[in-house]
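Minutes, project check-in

Agenda point 3 was the complex the collaborators sent over. CS summarized: two entities, 762 residues total, and the question is how they sit relative to each other. Sequences were read into the notes so everyone works from the same version.
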Amino acid sequence: MSDMEAQGSIMALNAIDELETPCIVIENGKIDANIEAMAQAAARCGVALRPHAKTHKLPELALRQLAAGATGITVAKVSEAEVMAAGGMRDIFIAYSLVGAKKINRAIRLSLAGVRLIVGVDSLEGASRLSEAALEQGTVLEVRLEIDTGLHRTGVSANAAIALAKQIAALGGIRLSGIFTYRGAMLAGASTLDLQAAGHEEGRLMSEAARLLRDAGIAIEDVSVGSTPTAIYAAEIEGVTEIRPGTYIYQDRMQAAFGVCSLKACAATVLATVVSRPADDLVIIDGGSKTFATDVQPGHPPLYLQGFAHVVGDPEAVLARMNEEHGMISVHPSSAYRVGDRLRLVPNHICSTVNLHNAVYIVDEDGQSRSVPVAARGMLE
Amino acid sequence: MSDMEAQGSIMALNAIDELETPCIVIENGKIDANIEAMAQAAARCGVALRPHAKTHKLPELALRQLAAGATGITVAKVSEAEVMAAGGMRDIFIAYSLVGAKKINRAIRLSLAGVRLIVGVDSLEGASRLSEAALEQGTVLEVRLEIDTGLHRTGVSANAAIALAKQIAALGGIRLSGIFTYRGAMLAGASTLDLQAAGHEEGRLMSEAARLLRDAGIAIEDVSVGSTPTAIYAAEIEGVTEIRPGTYIYQDRMQAAFGVCSLKACAATVLATVVSRPADDLVIIDGGSKTFATDVQPGHPPLYLQGFAHVVGDPEAVLARMNEEHGMISVHPSSAYRVGDRLRLVPNHICSTVNLHNAVYIVDEDGQSRSVPVAARGMLE
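CS then shared the predicted structure for the full assembly.
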């Protein structure tokens, strides 16, 4: 591919020539830079960094985040917490309401095994279930109350939080130690200034919620906010104590579209092979919706995403359609793609893309790649 | 859930009360009915039935399709073919162009091991690679030429097929035995009449392509067409010899929207738990885009799909938004959903939904469920 050669990306392709496609290739050097940048941003703001492990789903990368200064990790499922605990993590926040008895008992087992385990709650019903199970096991579970700062997903408003927090504080077997939220960038526009405003708003809403709760006599220690696009701005607000970004370790095309990073900072790309060139303006690759996540779609925020991935070295190419095993790329009619060419693509959303792959290939600076099973992939429980 | 009780679906929920959510539950009786209906339709039209295994990805269900009269199976990847061969399949069509040397050699190994293996081709470049590898191994691979009948994905036009088929026929190591196409329902409207017209068109285009090739001296034995929505109509056209539907074994909400089946015929549902009820008109379940595929989106064909799944027993509920672990269901403010309730949902697209799950639970008529690992899940190579 002469286009790609011209842009210097052919070296990495040569180095990974032996890999079967489609697969995810991760550049180790870029991970290091991304980990370091977020750790420094957190340190600068004086907040704890508790990365969400959903992006990589790999204990070895969580350990590297800890080594760079993270105080613990975040997951969404008890099954993910189990994988991460088995991989050496000792401070895990399940930022999700556990409702089922089996899940709650699994969480308690982790806690009894010596993990500092924190669980999200956003309802009295959910908190009561945690309370009963913990009392039965003779232990105390640490919980954080989820605040809705505008996403209208889970969580309660700052005002509703006061009554609920009092009820939770009255339950045995659980200890309410903090509040958390996820707001993301979807409410913001697409520019860095918008993100700054959105992050500041997120931080202010949480700081204010903590104040209201403390005024009501609830001891709130941790005030925890998301997310890769908003965390560093939210962290600037007095009263925020912790950030939980996830995507930053790899970055992705959505983050680049938000202005959070450059496309070159994206550590994870999909390597795919051209299997057909049925027309001058159409290239078919061997990866479709089983290879690239479709949960961040063209036409949804961030609005100027065209297609499902960025083709490295060919910014005009558009991965416009996908079936499960086919990716249909609109290309310039004069472009030189041939059957057998290997392309690299930056997916729109890397977290859900990683979840589709049993393994990823981590490539070192020397060009050697290593297959790493995605240990916490497909953990739904 | 009083709504669901009223509709009689509570019995199945009781029977699977012990399952952790989110998970896929499959009703065995419905599978039997769906397998039988398609087998009878194929027999009625006098065509061979070669189901696409991408829907279930389970050797045991492929064997049941064979027992009901299927002549072989279809897959998209050599890795899927390997799983299916290990599960007892002896007649496998990889309806996909194999381009990489490793993949081609893996296909040849299956062929040498006694599997009747057929491989798709749609370019001279691809055919030459197969030819060279087969000659090197001293064997002959059976291939089918892919015809584009309007989807503009892979495949060549009937006219272009003549020259290409002659070139392929001149290569050693491969034997061109047939032609195939995939058209699907996306080109059709949404009514049964539209599908009938689309299926007839697909059959006529393929029958005509076979005639052109035979007139040019190419011996075409197999004329193979898709798909769950169009297969039974395409099969009515003289000259079509084989159909390759996949989804029919489970059916899904997209097929129901196309008018192919009723929602009650859908054998596979997602079982999920309500984890939050943050507002009267909003219910949050513990499954999002890691649980439900997003490749068939609201607002795309079939156009009257609202949301990402149908909530069994509550047709007004809309699974309107998803993040990876959260499903946001808009509900009637008076509905009685509570934290801890378990719901069943029919996903828009079951094939890509199954691909997200490490296992499915097959429930027999006696209500006993059995976990079955999705053996060919995540096979990308």
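Noted in discussion: Residues 1-14 of chain B have pLDDT under 50 and may be disordered.
Follow-up: revisit at the next meeting once the mutant set is ready.
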